[in-house]
Design brief:
Elements lengths: L12 E3 L4 E3 L2 E3 L2 E4 L2 E3 L2 E3 L5 E4 L4 E3 L2 E2 L2 E4 L2 E3 L2 E9 L4 E3 L2 E8 L4 E2 L3 E3 L23
Parallel strand pairs: 1-4, 2-5, 3-6, 4-7, 5-8, 6-9, 7-10, 8-11, 9-12, 10-12, 11-13, 12-14, 13-15, 14-16
């Protein structure tokens, strides 16, 4: 069901199973949480990835472009790219996503809300209105 065609990125930051963080975590790059974070998790740059491991728990809001969840999140998720819910993922909160993959067995106790892709706004060229053309008779 899930393809492994995505290139794997190296983990920049690891929060292990024996670690509990009280407070917000802001990161860039790739963050892997297998411990507990009691606070919000926020990505500071586009393309950042968050993985919640099988023993990982986040009690707070998650705002990242891409998130893969094997563990548990108690709070809302805002992902402007992709959310992957693996078979034992547990979400207690709303999930705002652009793309969603959900394995059989994953649970969401909240709303699933699709968001359109964020696009850059194009500048429009509007011709300058010239003075009225002269008419000759």
């Amino acid at each position: 069901m899930f393809s492994n065609t995505k290139p794997k990125k190296a983990v920049d930051t690891l929060i292990t199973k024996n670690t509990t963080i009280h407070g917000n975590v802001e990161f860039s790059g790739v963050l892997y949480i297998d411990g507990t974070v009691k606070g919000n998790v926020l990505a500071s740059e586009p393309g950042s990835m968050l993985t919640i491991g099988a023993r990982g728990v986040v009690e707070g809001e998650v705002r990242v472009p891409h998130v893969s969840i094997f563990g548990e999140i108690v709070g809302n998720i805002y992902a402007n790219e992709e959310v992957e819910l693996m078979e034992k993922a547990k979400i207690n909160g709303d999930v705002f996503y652009h793309l969603l993959q959900m394995a059989m067995g994953a649970s969401v106790n909240g709303k699933l809300v699709h968001k359109a892709a964020e696009t850059t706004q194009r500048l429009e060229h509007k011709p300058i209105e010239s003075e009225k053309p002269e008419t000759t008779i």
